Predict the 3D structure of the following.
Amino acid sequence: MADQLSQDLASLKIDRSPKRRGRGLGLVVTLVILGGVGAVGYLVVYPRVVSALTTPELKTGEIALISPAQAQIQLTATGYVVAEITAKVAAKVPGRIAEIFVVEGQEIEKGAKVARLEDVDHKSALATARSRAAAARARVLIAKAQVAELKVSIDRDKPLAERGVIARAPVDDMEARIASLGASVKAAEAEANAMDAETRSLEVQLGSYLIVSPIAGTVVDKLVEVGEGVSPGFGTPGVVEVVDMQSLVVEVDVPENRLEQVEVGRPTEIVLDAYPKERFGGKVKEIGRRVNRAKATVPIKIAFEERPKQVLPEMAARVSFLSEDVGAAARKAPPKLVVPTTAVVQRAGADVVFTLDDERVRMLTVKVGGPFAGGRELETQLPVGTKVILEPPADLADGQKVKEKT
């Protein structure tokens, strides 16, 4: 009991040893530093880490080359140049090509000789038919000569027989032979006519061995070579392909729900992919009478106001349907580079755009002009078709990986 009391009294002593004040101050400073580092990490490092770990999806647009005339555009469609008048010139009869008289790119008239088939066998058959016809005509002459000879004999002997100078029987025999020879003459004439008809038929067929063009135009393709066989309805569909270049039009597919914006005679602007800096005037020539159910489109044919010499069949083209005709002067005005308005943002007091290349953005400082064709004129030269980020977020960084939002 005494020991317990001694311990309790000892615990009531006042500790008079000096206290170390620096330990508490250092703890406070450490906490302040750790808080600052945490704040910097949260405000600066964390967003970058999150951005690096999560790839954002962003909308994109393209830099386009637009002419002043395109301010009147109501609708744009793409298609191809096609010929309304074209022919794959084929042979009328089967055979083997002996000669080809034309070359690709050559302009020919209607009825021009294109090629010739081997015709030696046919010419031999024709010569045989002509000989048979000549022989038949010779038999007709012989039969007629025999009839004439008998008539002379009858005219001489008949009066003598009537006076009883000679017997009557030979005269009667000659008259009977005349009737028989008359039938022979008719048979020979019929045979000769048949031979002549066969000869004329072979002559007409010989003309089929010479292949001619049914239209005037330009030879765009040679489908066979000398020595190759052709047959109508089988094998090679023709010998050459001829296109009337004056009949070239652009055929495009217009969505069914935009058909009300198209009417015959409406002015258009045509741009060929082969010559993107040139503009050609055109007008709607024909609206198709069928709807492609699978694509919900209607075919439209556009005629050139003045057919350019460099246009060729199957060229890709873009047609812009205009609200009104802009005239040749506006079409000849040079096109301008246009960037979507929402793609241009400010960074450090300068206009910049973010281009997308291989899923990474590149920040480029650009010089832009005023509004033009729904965007802004781009004075800095960038390739047509370059993808740019629309409405880039404020934290988008150069070189950052992004996904294109579809």
Observations:
- Residues 120-162 form the longest helix (43 residues).
- Residues 120-208 form one domain.
- The mean pLDDT is 81.
- DSSP finds five helices and 25 strands in the chain.
